[in-house]
Every structure is written in structure tokens, then in C-alpha cells.
């Protein structure tokens, strides 16, 4: 039994290493308007932006791009299909030209064996799927999908997807296409009509397609579970259009339920962790996650917990606070050492990330004890799967105390005044009366408190 467990651990670790390598090294290819062919590398496990390099000029960006299982890259320029030379961007003579008149097409998918699929351009208001059979020399209608095409077709994990536009509802959708019986095609996710995707391809991330936003020219991950989009990089001023990669015929990527508080490790923390800004008594709370928090999941996220753990010398004065609200997220425990974020219905992973970035650590003791604090974050999905525990490290700095002595309690006769002197000339003062001078004069009985700061 021990041998089997060790072997499993070795295989599991090897899978993680191979998965990370795959994220880091995959090359995509895209065309742009007015006409350039590019290679695109996604850096640092999709956390460090993109490297875009021109391969060559092309006379026309085409109307669709698709790798085939043969490793060749094909471009649609109706009524013809061309093969692109990956080293130059040249496409030469067509490998096939449709022998009969067809509508203007947008998007192409090569499935091997000389078979290609296309759909009419969105403005054609057509939901028909066309099959191109180069071997037989024909282009035929397979059937109606029920969803008008608006963009590229792609293969991911052995399944075909494309974008559809519904003018009546004012929405766009990702459609799961059934190429055998197109009428069985199903809507997967829906999003706003003003956030269209033009280029669409497979990604190295579980349950996620890679797309090019039409108006912003951003590369984004599009999650097929909740529709969340994760920004990867901005290609502007390049007007990118169609995109494809050999990943379209790769096995489905492993679904690893993961949380990373600082995807590009810009805070200096490694792996899934985050180094928060330093905290001291002059700080009004510090965040516990970076802007590029990354989550991978197998189902809708149901809950996230954020908990102060380990060395907590100033308990119960070391607390977590929610500084705002996010629609669809319920919050419990704000002002305690543990906050729970719950899905109130319809919340996406992006909503949980937005809520997480509103959580701050604060130490409200009069004199915070110096040392390293840890805040642990973990989420659970509706399947019951739990992510790794990601940790925010917070260095609490103990500032030098400024000696203040207002003297003993004083008694004074009616009509007379008393002067209180906080000492420490030249420092900053904050009295309970609202005054900010070194000394105050008063003839009213009561308690007088002063905070003196040297600004360090």
C-alpha cells in the first residue's frame, strides 16, 4: 500500500509540473486588421501578460482561423480555405474553393479528414451549420442550430463552441454545438450584448475558453461554468481578430481547484500566497489579496472563508473588516477574526474576487505587537470540492512610543481654567476636544485624552 501511495504522489506532482509547463509555453496564432499574422505567447502561467510577435504581413485577416488535428493552421476567406505557413504567415493558393454560391461565412473549424465547419456571418441572421468536405468537393447544410452565429468556432476538450447573438434579449451566448444534430445545440453561458468576443479558441485552463474582446482587444479567459472573464493581457493598439492554437485538439486540461492571491507574485510571495503591505498603528487596515487574484474551479463557488491564524498576540483586537459590498455576495463575521463570503445566488468567481479585495486586516489595540501575521483564504464549490489554502502574510511593525504625561488629575475652582501640556514640541497632537495644539486650556470638568505622533 505504501508503494502505491508514493507512486500516486509522484504521478500527481508530475501532473502539476506538466500542467504548469503547459500553461507557460503554449503558443497561439492570430490575425489582425488590416493584415498581420502574429504569434502569441502567454507568460508565467497566464499571470505575467503576453508576448506578441509579428510573423509576417498578410493581404487579408480572413474570416476565421483554425488549427486542425493534423497540426496545420487554416484560414477562411470565403469562398475558399487556405493553409497558413506558420513561419511566414503566407497562405498561397487555396486548398479548396466552394463550387456553389454560399452566404458570407464567419468562423471556421477543422475537425480532420478534410472536414471543416462554418456558419454564416452574424448579420446574415442565420443559424445554419455548413459542412465542407474537401474529399468529396462539396459544401452542404447540416442543419439549424437554433442560435445565430456571431464570431469564431472552436474545439475544446473534444467539444465545439461558438458565440451567438440574440437581438431580442440583447445578449450574447456561448453555444455548445452538436455537429451531428445541430438542433440539439445548447446555450452554456450568457453575457451582455456590449461585451462581444470575436476570436475564440481553447485554453490551457479547465472549463475556460480563450477569447479576444471585440472592442477592447483584450485577451481574456471565459469560464464556461459561471461566465466569469479573467483578464490576461491587452493587445491594443493591435486590432486582433481571429485566434487559434493546437490546444484545440489537446486532451482536456486537468481541473485543479486552486486559489492564488497574487498570480504574478509581484508582492514577492511565491506559489499561491501574498505579501500584504506592512501594518502599524498609523495604518487604517491592509488588504489581503492582490489585484490579480486567480481562481480555478470545477463548479459554481458557494463559499469563501478568510481567517486570521497562527501568531495573534493582540487578540481580540486583531480583526478582519469588510469595507464594501458586492452584489450576490453575503458577508458574515466582519469585525471578527473570520469572515465568510457566501453565494447569495448568481455570483461569479469575479464577484468573490471583488469581495475578497474589500477585506482588510486591522489591529485596533493601542500598541500593536510587532511580528508576522497570517490570514488564510480558501473557497468551496457546489460540488463540495475545496481549494488549496492561500496565505496572506502581514508584517506588523511596532512603532516607538512617544512619552506623554499630562500629570495627575486636577481640581480647580469655578471660573478658573487649567492648562494641559502634552509636551514633545513639534509633534502632531490630537485631543479628545478636537484640538491639535501642544497645549489646551479648559475650565470644564471632564476627561481629556491626547494622542501624540512623531510621524514615524
State Rg. Answer: 30 Å
What structural class is derived from the secondary structure elements?
mainly beta
Q: Which quaternary structure do these chains form? A: single chain
> Which stretches of 5+ consecutive residues score pLDDT under 50?
1-24
The helical percent reads under 10%
Helix segment tally: 2
Shape: elongated
Termini separation: 59 Å
Q: Which percent range describes the beta-strand content?
A: 35-45%
Q: Which strand order does the major sheet show?
A: 22-31-30-25-28-27
Biggest beta sheet attributes: 6 strands, mixed
Write structural notes for this entry.
With 456 residues, the chain is mainly β. The protein has two helices and 35 strands. The relative contact order is 0.09.
Question: How are the elements arranged and paired?
Answer:
Layout: H1 2-25, E1 27-33, E2 36-42, E3 50-57, E4 65-67, E5 73-77, E6 80-84, E7 96-97, E8 105-112, E9 115-120, E10 128-133, E11 138-144, E12 149-156, E13 159-166, E14 171-177, E15 186-192, E16 197-202, E17 208-213, E18 218-223, E19 229-234, E20 239-244, E21 258-260, E22 274-275, E23 286-287, E24 294-296, E25 301-309, E26 318-322, E27 329-332, E28 338-343, H2 349-356, E29 359-363, E30 371-381, E31 390-396, E32 418-421, E33 428-431, E34 439-442, E35 450-453
Parallel strand pairs: 22-31
Antiparallel strand pairs: 1-2, 1-20, 2-3, 4-5, 5-6, 6-7, 8-9, 9-10, 10-11, 12-13, 13-14, 14-15, 16-17, 17-18, 18-19, 21-24, 23-29, 25-28, 25-30, 26-29, 27-28, 30-31, 32-34, 33-35
Amino acid at each position: 500500500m505504501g508503494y502505491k501511495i508514493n507512486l500516486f504522489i509522484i504521478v500527481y506532482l508530475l501532473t502539476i509540473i506538466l500542467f504548469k509547463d503547459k500553461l507557460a509555453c503554449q503558443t497561439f496564432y492570430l490575425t489582425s486588421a488590416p493584415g498581420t499574422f502574429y504569434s502569441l505567447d502567454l507568460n508565467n502561467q497566464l499571470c505575467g501578460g503576453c508576448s506578441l510577435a509579428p510573423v509576417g504581413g498578410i493581404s487579408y485577416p480572413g474570416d476565421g482561423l483554425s488549427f486542425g488535428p493534423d497540426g496545420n493552421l487554416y484560414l477562411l476567406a470565403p469562398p475558399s480555405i487556405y493553409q497558413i505557413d506558420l513561419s511566414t504567415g503566407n497562405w498561397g493558393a487555396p486548398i479548396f474553393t466552394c463550387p456553389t454560391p454560399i452566404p458570407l461565412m464567419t468562423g471556421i473549424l477543422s475537425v480532420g479528414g478534410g472536414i471543416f465547419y462554418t456558419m454564416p456571418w452574424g448579420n446574415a441572421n442565420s443559424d445554419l451549420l455548413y459542412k465542407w468536405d474537401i474529399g468529396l468537393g462539396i459544401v452542404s447544410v447540416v442543419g439549424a442550430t437554433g442560435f445565430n452565429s456571431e464570431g469564431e468556432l472552436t474545439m475544446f476538450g473534444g467539444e465545439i463552441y461558438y458565440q451567438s447573438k440574440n437581438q431580442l434579449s440583447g445578449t450574447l451566448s456561448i453555444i455548445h454545438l452538436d455537429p451531428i444534430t445541430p438542433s440539439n445545440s445548447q446555450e452554456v453561458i450568457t453575457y451582455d450584448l456590449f461585451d462581444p468576443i470575436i476570436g475564440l479558441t481553447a485554453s490551457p485552463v479547465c472549463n475556460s475558453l480563450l477569447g479576444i474582446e471585440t472592442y477592447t482587444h483584450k485577451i481574456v479567459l471565459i469560464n464556461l461554468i459561471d461566465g466569469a472573464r479573467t483578464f490576461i493581457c491587452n493587445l491594443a493598439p493591435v486590432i486582433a481578430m481571429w485566434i487559434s492554437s493546437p490546444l484545440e485538439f489537446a486532451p482536456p486540461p486537468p481541473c485543479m481547484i486552486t486559489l492564488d492571491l497574487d498570480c504574478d507574485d509581484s508582492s514577492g510571495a511565491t506559489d499561491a500566497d501574498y505579501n500584504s503591505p506592512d501594518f502599524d498603528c498609523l495604518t487604517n487596515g491592509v488588504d489581503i489579496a492582490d489585484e490579480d487574484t486567480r481562481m480555478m474551479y470545477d463548479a459554481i463557488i458557494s463559499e469563501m472563508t478568510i481567517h486570521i491564524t497562527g501568531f495573534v498576540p493582540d487578540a481580540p483586537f486583531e480583526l478582519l473588516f469588510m469595507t464594501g459590498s458586492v452584489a450576490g455576495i453575503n458577508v458574515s463575521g466582519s469585525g471578527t477574526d473570520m469572515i465568510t463570503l457566501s453565494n447569495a445566488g448568481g455570483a461569479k468567481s469575479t464577484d468573490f474576487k471583488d469581495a475578497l479585495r474589500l477585506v482588510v486586516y486591522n489591529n485596533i489595540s493601542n500598541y500593536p505587537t510587532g511580528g508576522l501575521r497570517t490570514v488564510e483564504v480558501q473557497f468551496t464549490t457546489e460540488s463540495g470540492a475545496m481549494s488549496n489554502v492561500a496565505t496572506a502574510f502581514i508584517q506588523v511593525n511596532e512603532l516607538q512610543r512617544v512619552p506623554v504625561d499630562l500629570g495627575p488629575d486636577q481640581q480647580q475652582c469655578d471660573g478658573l481654567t487649567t492648562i494641559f501640556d502634552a509636551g514633545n514640541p513639534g509633534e502632531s497632537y490630537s485631543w479628545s476636544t478636537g484640538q491639535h495644539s501642544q497645549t489646551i486650556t479648559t475650565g470644564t470638568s471632564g476627561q481629556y485624552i491626547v494622542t501624540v505622533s512623531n510621524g514615524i
